[in-house]
Amino acid sequence: MGKTIMLVDDAKVVLLKLSRILEEAGYEIVAEATSGTEAVEKYKQCYPDLVIMDIIMPDMKGIDAVKNIIKFDPDARIIMCTNLAKKTIVIEAILAGARNYILKPFNPQKVIDVVSVVINS
Prior knowledge:
Elements: E1 4-8, H1 12-24, E2 28-33, H2 36-46, E3 50-54, H3 62-72, E4 78-82, H4 87-96, E5 100-103, H5 108-119
C-alpha cells in the first residue's frame, strides 16, 4: 500500500487539483476535509501518513488545527498550503508543528518534492 494523505482546504477546486497531482505520483488520498474541525476529527479516524492543510479556513484556522492534531499525535506530518507568502504566517505554522509549506497556485513538481521529503522523514 502506498503512503496515505489527508487533504484539508475549504475550496473544492484546490482539493481536486491536489488529489490529481498526488494520485498521479502514486499517493493514496484517504480523507478530505473542508474545515479545521473536520480535519482534526478525520485525522483521529484515519491516521494518514501526511496532512496537507490550508492555513486560512472557516471555523477553525489551519494553524489551530495543526496544534490540535500535534497534541493528539506529536509525530504527525503536516504541510501547510497558502497563497500568502507572508513569512510570519508560515513561521507561525512551523512553530505550531507543521513540517513544511507549499504556495498556491501549485507547481506540481514542487508539491511532489515537498511531499516526498516530508512523508519520508
